Amino acid sequence: MATIQLPRNKERSSKLLSGTQQLSKVWPIFGDMLSFTLTAFVELMDHGIVSWDTFSVAFIKKIASFVNKSAIDISILQRSLAILESMVLNSHDLYQKVAQEITIGQLIPHLQGTDQEIQTYTIAVINALFLKAPDERRQEMANILAQKQLRYIILTHVIRAQRAINNEMAHQLYVLQVLTFNLLEDRMMTKMDPQDQAQRDIIFELRRIAFDAELEPNNSSGSMEKRKSMYTRDYKKLGFINHVNPAMDFTQTPPGMLALDNMLYFAKHHQDAYIRIVLENSSREDKHECPFGRSSIELTKMLCEILKVGELPSETCNDFHPMFFTHDRSFEEFFCICIQLLNKTWKEMRATSEDFNKVMQVVKEQVMRALTTKPSSLDQFKSKLQNLSYTEILKIRQSERMNQEDFQSRPILELKEKIQPEILELIKQQRLNRLVEGTCFRKLNARRRQDKFWYCRLSPNHKVLHYGDLEESPQGEVPHDSLQDKLPVADIKAVVTGKDCPHMKEKGALKQNKEVLELAFSILYDSNCQLNFIAPDKHEYCIWTDGLNALLGKDMLSDLTRNDLDTLLSMEIKLRLLDLENIQIPDAPPPIPKEPSNYDFVYDCN
């Protein structure tokens, strides 16, 4: 990512910041001037010249007052929200002060408006407060969000609004989704205490709901042994691994107590389905019964892995799922749908206990394929799963396998080897053409993604990289002459990626983010000079690293190149073998036929 070097004159910066605070006192007389000043202030602070901790409480109160006003200029509101977000993310002390001045209730009206940019900044502030809240306050804040019906307001006024969701809004919704699911981490990493009676009572409740058991009188002769035997039998029917003391099944983390929470939710809120699954399996032969307890524990663990519960949100990801905003207990409902899917798939596979891991793999594939379609509701997700039966998964796998295995005979492999250099040259030219078109990169910092851009493109003769800052995201290509900086390709010494990049070695939030590391690359040139990039997505990362390596005469090693090579090779071979369709290709050449008995024959070409 290209950086602008500013003089680090703290005295001059302090004067500007002091002026900003003074201007805020005379608003609205200087309404337009205040808007421009706040814009300059945001730009200045993004360069890290002055510490956020230098601001007075009075300044924070003034900025907060702009957000709390019902009628305020849009540009002032936007900049004020951006400043509050930065304060929260960059200073623990300021988080405390901002949290005292701004409440969720005061932010919600901004979500109910029609300006998507204001909605985006508002959700960004909520995310910042959520992210920086102490552990003991996060659940409290989540409860406040539920009371204020934040989820329903976002669903109605943002997700289902009659307009497309832009990338920045999608990113903020993704962050909110991740932070919400991360509230489950504590339960996910909590082991069950086999001696805790309250926790043991949950298991008793699962048994009671499933079998509607009546308590036997405690003073009956021999009742204790009889009850133990009955409990052991019922716990086996419930599918626990430890029939005598099922509490031991929940001592592994993850998923810990979260699995038991899900089971109890399913038993109470989908009681008919729960009873049907338990009784249905308890009446089957032992070898074909689907163990509900073990399945629930492994399924909870799998869903946590899919949703990356406990991981920090990525700075670049936009992958939010609308269906998780349609229910206050979306994770639990997600589990309830998937546990019924697991039971259905188990029956379709006619599985036994030895097939448990195979069933889980199929279920994971079903869930992942359904999620990629981005269903808008949990009902739609359930409908997608109905179309992904075990039979359908087998068909998909068979189709994919045939595409992989059709061309493994020796003659085909030889043909592949012959035409591969042509395909690689084609891919190389495509990468270089894309570099000539150029790419718009976002500027990132520890605060969050910015609406600041810079553009980089390769000259048509492949000898110079042109780059420079932009005021806004461009529509189409940016001309070379509008990009003020140049870097001759001949001066490039190396291209480094990930942790080897200079801007990933600096202190800050970006360094700790795995997904940002996977999108980072740098061009090293001259002595201690570099041009730093963070690609907008994995595809652009592959395009640029491949193209730069091609310019330096190195191999293109990205996943995209491998996929393109496989696809183009497959297509080329199919085209060349078109006349041999449905004819089996032998592994070895056919034998040379015997010589004819005589050569008294003529072929008439007319």
TrEMBL record:
GO terms for biological process: actin filament organization; cell motility. GO terms for cellular component: guanyl-nucleotide exchange factor complex; plasma membrane. It comes from the Eukaryota. Coiled coil: none annotated. InterPro entries: ELMO_ARM, ELMO_dom, ELMO_domain-containing, PH-like_dom_sf, PH_domain. It holds the Pfam family ELMO_CED12. Residues 198-371 form the ELMO domain. Gene3D superfamilies: 6.10.250.810, Pleckstrin-homology domain (PH domain)/Phosphotyrosine-binding domain (PTB), SH3 Domains. Involved in cytoskeletal rearrangements required for phagocytosis of apoptotic cells and cell motility. Acts in association with DOCK1 and CRK. Was initially proposed to be required in complex with DOCK1 to activate Rac Rho small GTPases. May enhance the guanine nucleotide exchange factor (GEF) activity of DOCK1. This is Engulfment and cell motility protein 1 isoform X2. The lineage of its organism: Eukaryota, Metazoa, Chordata, Craniata, Vertebrata. The gene is Elmo1.
